[in-house]
Design brief:
- The complex is a heterodimer of chains A (260) and B (100).
- Chain A is of the alpha/beta class and 260 residues long.
- Chain A has a domain at 2-90 and 162-246: Rossmann fold.
- In chain A, 38% of the residues lie in helices and 28% in strands.
- Chain A has nine helices and twelve strands.
- With 100 residues, chain B is α+β, with helices and mostly antiparallel strands.
- Chain B has one domain: Fe-S cluster assembly (FSCA) (GMP Synthetase, Chain A, domain 3, 2-Layer Sandwich).
- Helices cover 35% and strands 20% of the residues of chain B.
- Chain B contains four helices and five strands.
- Chain B has helices at 4-11, 23-26, 53-68, 90-96; strands spanning 15-16, 21-22, 29-34, 39-43, 73-77.
- Chain B is globular, with a radius of gyration of 13 Å.
- Classes of the chains: A alpha/beta (260), B alpha+beta (100).
- At the A-B interface, helix 3 of A face helix 4 of B.
Chain lengths: 260, 100
């Protein structure tokens, strides 16, 4: 899958937030997106999935050449896109097991072998994510701790095998153990399927466990620079003030080079 | 020679009309015995007095005859052990909203 974001502009209640985002990503690649608060990182993921709170005022998002901006969120998901929410929603009355079974049936509608072995695969994935089996019967995210909600997002990814996932600040609120488990899940998909991801994060920590192929830094609604892991290290060392000084100026050594 | 598994696969085509799930996944088939010239099936219903016994019986006989050519199909309606929700397959229980 190829995702091309071209000159994307979006606003919320007449306040422009995305001011011309250009980004190309492919499945098989892991991209990291970093930036200070308010730079538009979460707005970008929301607009990619069609959150109507944001109004797109220009540009396009092409998935394999098709502009998805006219598509409903569920239609975008059916293409193979997945959003791991920053704040997963609680849905009382819908159990984890029933929800995942139904979603899996829709995702793999012509694959009988997957449907027949669903419970077996679910139990194995839950063991892998170190989640208690009893979670199958619990209502989706209802009463879950922050870490459990985030692991639940990754469990959905393992069961639905998207082609490209956006992880919207998945690391926020996670302790180191939960972070390792979440990363284990993402890396499993990365190693075993043609999977790509955009990891949106504020901190370097998750990128120690999920090593990105490309790093992009967002500032004031645009991607201002892209590079490899050296960018993450520069950010950690010099902070976002350094980005402000560099804003609008091409960093001399920045090349689009995979590190992994 | 036809195996018990073959008969079981055929019986998965018989749907319990009240639940909408096949009688094998509901857990209604208790015993299958395959002989050279006869197939015998012990089965139960989800509750005594279920009015669909005759229909389910008829469907079982028909499918075994059609799939495997057996003219002689003996069905026995038994009540021991009494059926309970645990006999239903996990996939079926999920579909109906039961815990697993």
């Amino acid at each position: 899958m190829k995702i091309e974001i071209r000159n994307l502009q979006a606003q919320i209640e007449d306040t422009p937030i995305l001011k011309g985002v250009d980004l190309t990503m492919n499945s098989g690649e892991v991209h990291a997106l970093m930036g200070p608060n308010g730079s538009g990182k979460s707005t970008l993921s929301n607009v990619m999935f069609g959150n109507e709170t944001y109004e797109v005022t220009g540009g396009e998002i092409l998935v394999d050449g098709q502009n998805i901006l006219e598509m409903e969120p569920h239609e975008r998901a059916q293409l193979g896109l997945f959003l791991a929410f920053q704040y997963p929603v609680e849905i009382p009355g819908v159990s984890v097991g029933r929800f995942l079974k139904r979603a899996s049936e829709i995702r793999f509608e012509n694959d009988e072998s997957r449907t027949k072995s669903f419970v077996k695969r679910l139990r194995a994935s839950m063991d892998f994510m170190e989640m208690e089996q009893s979670f199958i019967n619990r209502y989706l995210n209802t009463g879950f701790s922050g870490g459990e909600k985030k692991r639940m997002e990754i469990l959905q990814m393992l069961m639905l095998e998207p082609q490209f996932a956006i992880l919207d600040e998945t690391d926020s609120g996670l302790d180191i153990d939960a972070l390792k488990i979440v990363s284990k899940g993402v890396n499993k998909l990365r190693n075993e399927t043609d999977f790509g991801a955009l990891v949106i994060t504020h901190y370097q920590r998750i990128l120690d466990h999920i090593k990105p192929d490309y790093v992009h830094i967002m500032y004031q609604g645009r991607i201002v620079t892209s590079g490899g892991h050296e960018l993450v290290e520069a950010l950690e060392a010099k902070g976002y003030d350094w980005v402000k000084k560099q804003h609008g100026i091409q960093e001399e050594e920045a090349n689009e080079q995979p590190t992994g | 020679m036809v195996s018990k598994t073959d008969i079981l696969e055929s019986l998965k085509k018989v749907i319990d009309p009240e639940i909408g799930i096949n009688i094998v996944d509901v857990g209604l088939i208790y015993r299958i015995d395959v002989q050279e010239d006869q197939v015998e099936v012990d089965f139960t219903l989800t509750y005594p007095g279920c009015p669909l016994g005759d229909q389910i019986t008829g469907d079982m006989v028909t499918v075994i005859r059609e799939d495997h050519g057996y003219d002689n199909v003996v069905t026995n309606l038994v009540w021991n052990p009494p059926w309970s929700i645990e006999f239903m397959s996990e996939e079926a229980r999920l579909d109906l909203g039961y815990p697993i």
